[in-house]
Amino acid sequence: MEQDYINIHAWVHDAAGRSLFKQPANSKSQLVVVSCCKSDDCTFFKRNECILLDTAIFNRSSCPYGKKQYTTGYTKRARKNYSWVKKYQEKYKDILGGLHSPTDVMAKVGEYIYLPYAHMNMNKRLPLERHSSAFVSGDKFLKMSDFTPDMIKSIVDFHPHAMMGGEILSYQREIVPIFVQHLKENFPAIYKEANEIAELDRYIKVFSHIGRLAYVHTLKTGCEIWKKNSPAEKWTWDGEYLRSTTQTLSFPITRDYDQLEMTMLPTETTTITITSNDQVCDMTKFLK
To answer: Number of helices (H) and strands (E), helices first, in the chain?
Structure first.
């Protein structure tokens, strides 16, 4: 039975438009349309992302449920270029630039789980269609039915080796703790079951949230927030507003004042970069 695909994202490149890099005179305008038959059961789509929009050269992945189609238009000097670009901008205006490239966090996509973790697809025990090797980029989609506690144990116990020999130490030191933390956050029931045989809690204890993107509304109430390079300029999260008395602004006034307080009302999607584990609590949700 043929699956029904719906268009979920479109992008129109205008050869005559502005560009950061000089374009060849014969470059042509282009339309890119992404369609999907599983957007109703895709974590990426719920996050306004799509795996087919991954721009990283070595991370580009295909999707078992998505398609990307290209249509080529005219050069920037062609008389029909303007009308061609406007035609498709109008046709796909509802989905134009609607999605973003994916964050590097595991995601359920239909019957699969997407595992975007370095060196993990070198593990031959994982029943992937293609494993990573010297000149082959491995698959990152694993059937959810294969994502069992035993398979998770195989993932955390894996010790990959480089092509020229020697263990890739960053896998156990960095990748596995991130994988385990993401598993606990996104699939707590699977984590609980796998923890019984794989002792996953040992990785949680050493995991640091510093550097991750978290939603402000889920942070620990009363915590202080600051930029990595500006620790003196702090904000306090009171559960509703971000407040600060340390920001410096210039006002057109001629008299002194005792104290300046700034308030900010974050939206449900406002995120900050974690600079201290004290900002995190059990209710904290992360974008990445």
So the answer is: 7, 12
